[in-house]
Design brief:
Keywords: Hydrolase, Iron, Metal-binding, Protein biosynthesis
CATH architecture: Alpha-Beta Complex
Number of helices: 3
EC number: 3.5.1.88
Number of strands: 7
Enzyme class: hydrolase
Family: Belongs to the polypeptide deformylase family.
InterPro entries: Peptide_deformylase, Peptide_deformylase_sf
Structural class: alpha+beta
Strand order of the largest sheet: 1-2-3-6-7
Number of domains: 1
Order of helices and strands: HEEEEEEEHH
CATH class: Alpha Beta
Largest sheet: 5 strands, antiparallel
Oligomer: single chain
Length: 163
Amino acid sequence: MAVRKIYIYPDAALRRETEEVKDFDEDLQALAADMFETMYASDGIGLAAPQVGVSKKLVVIDYQGDKNVLVNPVITKEEGEVTREEGCLSFPGIYEKVLSPEKISVKYFDENGKEYERDLEGFTACVFHHEIDHLNGRLLIDRVSPMKRAFLKKKMSKKAAEE
């Protein structure tokens, strides 16, 4: 296992379209293990493959002891809306109130190819939704008001230029 680099906004890797995973092999399991280690090292609760520069439909989540590897996840149903404060490892130090579904239904495979279908609600639904958004190139910044988005883009671009 290894801690990988987390790509920070506005890196183009975060906007790339991800590819469906076809092989449930040792490479996939090693990538998932690296992503868990990377997420834990950054005190995160979820991490999507594009955040470590890999354009695959793969997410890892460990929220309140519910550890999940999501391969090719698809949200099949969304219900209700709620505003919650979210953060993102690709936007370090930024926490914003965003609108997200209250409940979702999601289908996915684990790293061994076993299929799951879950109904989630509350903050757990928010975490799954946020990470699956990453697989579609959708980011935290896309779920805030246009004025807040312009402010965050400027702030993150300035921060990237300083590093």
